[in-house]
Amino acid sequence: MTGAAIQAEAKVAAEGEPQRTDVLTFVVKAITVLPQLLIPLGFVSFSMFDDGLPSEVLYIALLLVATLALILLSAFLSWSRFTYRIGESDIRVESGILSRAARSVPYERIQDVSLEQKLIPRLLGLVEVKFETGAGGKDELSLAYLAEEEGEKLRELVREMRDEASGEAVDAAAEGTELERAEAAATLFAMGPRRLFTFGLFEFSLAVFAVLGGLAQYAETLIGFELWDPDLWRGWLAGSGEWIGALGPMAQVVGAVAGVATLVVIGSATGLVRTFLRDWDFRLERTPKGFRRRRGLLTKTDVVMPAHRVQALRIGTGLIRKRFGWNGLKFVSLAQDSGAASHDVAPFAQEEELAPIIRAAGFEPVADGLDWQRRSTAFRNISMVINAAVLGLIGVVVLSLNAFGAGGNIDFAQLLAFIPFAVGGFLVLREYYLWRFARNAIDTRQVYRRTGWLAPSAAIANRVKLQSVEIKQGPIARWKGYADLHLGLAGGTFAIEGVPLDRARSLRRAILDSIAETDFSEINR
């Protein structure tokens, strides 16, 4: 569909009646609510049978039918009372059954339009259209749900209207057809099953135990005792302890190793499942409209980020993956990515794979020969002293109370009071090494920041795209002559902490000069 066709369709939609989402929307919402009622109804049923009241089955069935009817009725009314209209200058949405709400979002306020498909809508051929306004959270606008083809057309339509409203429109004839634009897309990064498997091994997680803990609260009704009763576990461990003690030292070691191995297997399996669900068929493409990222197995997302809206880059790694050369790249954009300010564009890549993506976004990778500057030594020393003083004071208080309660004698339990001293010493060493590896630099186009010791990260910001420059100083910072430099981004934050005051002023002056010399009306063209 050409730009002229999109504009014609926009005028027709603007003059037509308000439109509703797909009729299957209320079915999807009813299905998603239903699982929340199954567990309570199941426990009610079990309790009634356990009391010897099988004649109550009819009442349970009636309760279930009435509940389903209410859910369907509520979902249908909510769907029928939700309308949207694509106007000439804005999108207008009205919703509410008893209390009505009307919202209008101008096109120039829309930062991005993305498509998302969860499992059930995907099976029904539906898609949720999300309009990112840069406000984040509940203020974002979405239409759930439309047919896939209709959602794609609506996205193209709104983007065209937004570009015209913000002065970013291009010649429709130069855009070509939708098929030509698809053929012009170039894949910058992709992850197949083998890469996802490797990625999942590094995404070790024990979150499954949190889920099991939540389910255990429901299970208490069935098993008849309190899972979190300390006396219960104390007695069980005492009996098990006698049995384990009879096995001998070698068996105890084998049991401990098996327990650790079980945790490793469970954590690795959890990480693999999460990675495959989130990043299945991950693909980043460079299109004439910007960067297009698609991913997801059960929930599929389709996001397009215009290149000129990329405000900064974040490059990070992990403690273990660093040793194997794996890094992650994120774009800091005006729009949100699942509630986060940064978009994952290459979550698991080698360094040589990141360079083409960075250049395609209009940035340059970190070059050799930059004049890297460390944080102020005064900032480092103050941080070390504060950590040592706070933990040392806690240790002294705990040790004094324990010694006073024991009549001046110190036993093993009281030796645990020395833990704060050990933690304080660790934090002092940590601050020292963080100071060694935290640096900042600037060149004619970009500002750089490096942080981290065991898991280093880097951030790159374009000097022209920065919104503001602020120098912050607390009482100690003013006394010791250092400051925090906060660089404002429309899609996030960029802070350089603890730099000497002269350095902070020099960076501020250079960045403000770049902003003052730039004609922002030409940036987006």
Automatic annotation (TrEMBL):
Keywords assigned: Membrane, Transmembrane, Transmembrane helix
Domain YdbS-like PH: residue ranges: 79-157, 435-511
Transmembrane feature ranges: 26-46, 58-79, 196-219, 253-277, 384-406, 412-429
One Pfam family this sequence matches: bPH_2
Protein's recorded name: YdbS-like PH domain-containing protein
Organism of this sequence: Erythrobacter litoralis (strain HTCC2594)
Lineage start: Bacteria, Pseudomonadati, Pseudomonadota, Alphaproteobacteria, Sphingomonadales
